[in-house]
Amino acid sequence: MSQFEEFIKRLDHADDDYWADVLSDEARKIIDSAPEVLLSAVLEHYQAWPENRLEHLAYLLGEGVSELEEQLILLLQQSKYESVVSRAKEAAIELETTRKGCRANKHAAVLDKSR
User: Fold this and answer.
1) Under a CB-based contact definition with an 8 Å cutoff, are residues 15 and 52 in contact?
2) pTM attached to this predicted model
């Protein structure tokens, strides 16, 4: 089974404690292992996906710094499903926080080097 198929399998699981406690972490690790490749594939297919899969996808987004992740968040905010729109808005906030954290870490590293 390809990484993309493994990712879809996790997204399609029912929204329960196992999804929240285990599968969401596994799915995020799959994204992080090859974000550009995986998110490119998602962008090719997401429009035909069911609500549950899209909602789980939106739930996972916002922790990375990929431009494709940001693009996907923006697209999901236009979903016909309110649950997906809500999760995508949360992901946009998380993405901004993640990026601020990255900038702060870069700034701290520069300060450390200058000492």
Assistant:
1) yes
2) 0.85
